[in-house]
Design goal:
- By secondary structure, the chain is α/β, with parallel strands linked by helices.
- The chain is built from 18 helices and 15 strands.
- 52% of the residues are buried.
- The longest helix has 17 residues.
- The two termini are 14 Å apart.
Length: 431
């Protein structure tokens, strides 16, 4: 999604990473005398148990020399990013650290708005995270974001209907479509599978998954060329278009974002749904869902004979303001946030998926939610966020794919146009 903040970051660079380190000369060690650390973050975790509050309380109890002042961030993502850009480009030392989308890393790094944190951490620090999570936080071989929470997509299904008709949990997209049509023909549901096909960032994430599961990629490894019109990608997008065209998916999918998809599913109108982790709790809420107690969740399907269960990486990183005057305190807090103990607490108290592989795979954490169990079967795939021009890349993808889904653009012509748009973005030219 390219809002005013995306344009700002694309046009107002203030230096390349590595040219200068404003934090140079500061100690990276935990301070031995009292300091105040500012953390800008919007509320997250359970609504009745804001994770910011208890995280700060627990950290300060363990680190009495560091007092954390929480600055509430705007809940609108574009507004949040724009305000941060304005502050940091002006040289402000606060906030010292801030939460930001995983897709921001390269944009922030290229504009001098985040510190390359791997300079100050042990060489093996990021080994405990899934490579796709680290890839999403990396720009020009430096890591700029500490993974705080991990989001990914899942396939949700009506377990009562599958059991009634003797259907196994599907493992491929082709099986999903076949079972969806079976349940539609039986009169069980009006819609087969609901997902996000509107012209926005969510469609880039969905396209990324279909293409990756079909063995393709949106761009090549060195970010020099788009691959969106490859045979693999073309087959995947044609499959997506077919779901809408033949009525397996709602005709309205080209206008659906996450809320519309979820509403269709929780109303009992669809057999399957592609959505993010949060959707499980909503679908199982007896007060708001018509299908509570009937919901199953599994890892994302593969495509045909492939073995990639592709799920786009989402979630939040914590970034360090390059002008911070509290480098040691910042690093101390960030390392604490990504410790096994804190990540376990976040899973238990805030229902987040841990960013550390070992914590996510632990038996006591797996027992917390079937979503965490299902996450073990996902192959995480980063969107091409390692380019600072990712907003333009994404706009090229979702704009053209949406036209294909809506039937206003032929698949070949649309994907060729998307590839040309990606090329322009990768060359640093505007759309």
């Amino acid at each position: 999604m390219l809002g005013t903040a995306g344009l700002l970051l694309a046009t107002a660079a203030c230096g390349s990473p590595g040219e200068e380190d404003p934090a140079a000369g500061q100690s990276a060690e935990e301070p031995t005398s009292p300091v105040t650390l500012t953390w800008q973050a919007a509320p997250f975790g359970n609504r009745a148990d804001d994770a910011r509050v208890w995280l700060v309380e627990e950290f300060e109890a363990e680190h009495p020399n560091i007092d954390i002042e929480v600055i509430s961030a705007p809940t609108n993502v574009d507004t949040n990013r724009a305000s941060l850009a304005t502050q940091i480009m002006g040289g402000a030392s606060t906030p010292d650290i801030y939460n930001g989308d995983v897709a921001w890393a390269a944009q922030l790094a290229d504009n001098g708005l985040a510190l390359p944190v791997d300079r100050y951490l042990p060489e093996d620090y990021f080994d405990g995270f899934d490579p796709a999570v680290v890839e999403g936080a990396t720009f020009e071989d430096q890591v700029f974001g500490i993974p705080l929470t991990l989001d990914q997509s899942f396939l949700y299904y009506r377990k009562d209907l599958l059991e009634k008709h003797g259907l196994p949990v599907p493992g491929t997209w082709q099986e999903v479509a076949e079972q969806a049509r079976t349940l539609q023909d039986a009169g069980e549901v009006a819609e087969g599978i609901t997902w996000q096909g509107a012209s926005y960032e969510g469609l880039t994430a969905v396209t990324n998954e279909f293409v990756a599961s079909a063995g393709g990629s949106l761009v090549n490894e060195d970010l020099s060329e788009g691959l969106i019109d490859s045979p693999e990608a073309t087959e995947a997008v044609e499959f997506m278009r077919g779901l809408v065209a033949d009525g397996t998916s709602p005709r309205g999918v080209p206008t659906y974002q996450e809320p519309q998809s979820l509403q269709t599913f929780t109303n009992g109108d669809a057999a399957f749904m592609r959505n993010w982790a949060y959707a499980y709790a909503t679908a199982e809420n007896e007060e708001t869902s018509g299908i509570a107690g009937k919901v199953g969740v599994t890892s994302m399907p593969a495509f045909g004979d492939g073995d990639t269960n592709a799920a786009s990486v989402g979630g939040w990183n914590v970034y360090v303001n390059p002008h911070t005057e509290q480098l040691g305190a910042s690093l101390t807090f960030l390392k604490w946030l990504t410790s096994a103990e804190t990540q376990t607490d976040l899973a238990k108290r805030s229902s987040t998926i841990p960013t550390l592989d070992a914590v996510r795979e632990a038996a006591d954490v797996q027992a917390l939610s079937p979503v965490i169990v299902a996450s073990a079967g996902n192959d995480l795939v980063a969107r091409p966020t390692a380019s600072p021009y990712y907003p333009q890349i994404s706009q090229s993808i979702y704009g053209q794919v949406n036209g294909i889904l809506a039937g206003t653009t032929e698949t070949g012509a649309g994907l060729e146009a998307a590839r040309n748009g990606i090329r322009s973005a990768l060359e640093g030219r505007s759309l």
